[in-house]
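Recap quiz, item 2
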Amino acid sequence: MPDNSELVMKGVSRIFPGVRGGQPTEALRPTDLTIERNDFVSILGPSGCGKSTLLRIVAGLDRPTTGTVTLEGQVIRGPGADRGMVFQSYTLFPWLTIRDNVAFGLREKGVPERQKWEIVDSYIDKVGLRGFENHWPKQLSGGMQQRTAIARAIANNPKILLLDEPFGALDNQTRGLMQELLLGIWEREQKTVIFVTHDIEEAIFMASRVVTMTARPGRIKSITQVPLPHPRHYTVKASPEFSELRLKLTEEIRGEAIEAATHG
Amino acid sequence: MHPLEPISPRSRVLLGILFFVLFIAGWSFATFGGFVSKTFLADPLTMLQDGWLLLTKQGFLWDIAITVWRVVGGFILASLVAVPLGIAMGAYKPIEALLEPFVSFARYLPASAFVPLLILWAGIGETQKLLVIFIGAVFQIILMVAVSVSATRRDLVEAAYTLGAGDNGIVRRVLIPANAPDVAETLRLVLGWAWTYVIVAELIGASSGIGYMIINSQALLATGQIIFGIIVIGVIGLISDFAFKSLNRWLFAWRLA
């Protein structure tokens, strides 16, 4: 395919109907966005800006009121294994061991036993959870659970990986380590990734492009290239280039955050 | 003693036993002290003697076996029908819309009130006894299972969808395993209620069973036997409840991990 664009959103909007005769909520203004293959895009915005709604529409878990999303030319009509997702809440299946959790999608696909466990074990290694394969999710810390959730999504080999504030519930130190881990996997494996966050530093550190969104109703405010070289080390966060980007995005987001805080 | 403050396992067991001791002491005081007429309430020793005679001379073990078989039989029949229906109702909203109003209504029909009708329909044999328990249990199980399945964590269902699960996969690999512990807990609860229905069924039109023995003893003013029968039911209930709880803990260890 000569066209290198993987995911194309055209005029995607979402209006939630009013509850009990109330006003409908416009969560997302018609939005256009194109994401290229193996791109790592962060979507940054204050809470309630529709960034999660946008991601859920791409995942097929929510339907746009207008517009279409296409993945490799195919219109998205519902959820599917080609779009893996990691949620902010811990969504490991509590009745399955870590190993069986990671194997969930492969089993659904009907991958042969031996090959399945090879893939599962290799991803368990990559997220550093060897030795915990037979634990239940409840026995693991939040960071380990999210690592499993990442392994579970990538083991399924999706065309695009969607992350909805995956490290939002983690403490600061764990969060930093998780960012490096995910970035390391991305640098090695090359995947198309959309990463939703409200953390400016996280958005810059992870991505090659940062898309900022306005307060409700959400729409794209700006798209910023992140020209920092790969592989990125956490020390890049102290570099002047990084600070400059942080300052620029902070300015942009600040106004929106104030808007969101006053109008809710 | 402070609110919600835990106590040691040892004192928990001791306190639990203490109340049984107090209860029997109160009973002994009332009967041996002559405060209650022997006609109306047998003393603990008479009760034990009567019980021994029942077991050794009057084939009460057979009655116990018959009653257990009725409870378990009716309960298993009800579970086989109700659990799949409840899962289908919880998972698929049109099925819920179709059945929920009727099941909610039927749930309040007292099983005991069906006894005369069921005698007309099914006679006084085993079928009638099983049907009483079936009617008493089936609607309760359907509704409770449907409620659990409806309340399945949405994010787990969504995660399964993004991992490529289809509708069938969602039911088989998310809704059922996620709710299996709740379903087991529901069954444990309803089994307890089934014991109430079986005795009612045996009080009328029966020729065997614990309930039959009780109603017979009433005619003979044998209160010792009646009390022994009641205690036997309590003990069996306690044992089955304990077995059910242990089984659930073993089956669903992931929940406690």
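Chain B is about 80% helix and 0% strand.
The interface with chain A takes residues 155-156, 158-166, 169, 173-174, 177-178, 180, 252-255, 257 of chain B (CB under 8 Å).
End of item.
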